[in-house]
């Protein structure tokens, strides 16, 4: 099998590009493109395909499978797109770094491990994961746990949600007097809500969906992270609601990909919109706390990469599967 990873992330692509390749529905098309095994890891900061195939599947084919909404394909022009490709041992190393939070915008963040486990479980349930990716991801989960246990890489603001709260605090200073709405469900929203409470927010509202858009008239800060495939807030539906807000700005921090808020909303008077890419500078400031821990984490990863490769027979660019130990249930999936 050829083992590989093709993807794009906050390192190589802006949010506009990432949301074009959000990967919805790509699992079946990847199999049709020639992947014997395939797993899509899609988060707010990355879209990656981990695959195993008898014959090489081109980056063009992978990009085409990831395109959202059947838009016009860029097939044949992947060299102009910010896709990276890792094969064999480089693929192994990359996944171990991703699962451990070393490749994240917020270095050391722990959400990525839970997201990787969910992606693995989904692909395995659909039959897209076989022996090759099973062994690779099981080892990645072990590596991530060891890095978190034996280093202090998770010190400081270590989630996208907590960095969003950092940004809100930089803007408002004292958050205790602010009304805040967290829109969305899941781990990111939960972490964001906890971070807000820890900073003194009293008037905190949490909603899974924007069932009451008029809430935007009553709040100071909206932090949104839903799984909607289309913008929930546009100038057309938000503008009229804010007509009576005089000298009271609304700050929106959109950490969803695809984005929940139409970028044109930023043109509305009194509205200040920040997307996931705007959090980069805030995240980089918190990195200094954990930079010294990265060397220890990289050493753990290097040791596991070497051990993993020793247990598999390799040819240039290929992995020969050991089929003596078929996939078994993973008890570690019960917790992130």
Helix and strand topology:
Blueprint: E1 2-9, H1 15-20, H2 26-32, E2 37-42, E3 46-53, H3 59-66, E4 84-87, H4 88-99, H5 111-125, H6 131-150, H7 160-172, E5 179-183, H8 187-198, E6 203-207, E7 221-224, H9 235-238, E8 250-254, E9 271-275, H10 280-287, H11 291-310, E10 313-315, E11 318-320
Parallel strand pairs: 5-6, 5-7, 7-8, 8-9
Antiparallel strand pairs: 1-3, 1-4, 2-3, 10-11
Question: What would your notes on this structure say?
Answer:
It is built from 11 helices and 11 strands. With 336 residues, it is α/β, with parallel strands linked by helices. The protein has a 5-stranded parallel sheet with strand order 6-5-7-8-9, with helices on one face. Strands 2-3-1-4 form a 4-stranded antiparallel sheet, with helices on both faces. The chain has a two-stranded antiparallel sheet with strand order 10-11. Helix 4 packs across helix 6. It is globular, with a radius of gyration of 21 Å. The protein starts with a strand and ends in a 16-residue tail after the last strand. The relative contact order is 0.15. The C terminus is likely disordered.
List keywords for this structure.
336 residues, disordered C terminus, alpha/beta, 11 strands, 11 helices, five-stranded parallel sheet, globular, four-stranded antiparallel sheet
Q: Please, what is the average pLDDT?
A: 81
Strand composition percent: 15-25%
Q: Cα-atom Rg, whole angstroms? A: 21 Å
Q: Give the SSE order as H and E letters.
A: EHHEEHEHHHHEHEEHEEHHEE
Q: How many DSSP-defined strands?
A: 11
| C-alpha termini separation | 29 Å
- Poorly predicted regions: 74-78, 323-336
- Silhouette: globular
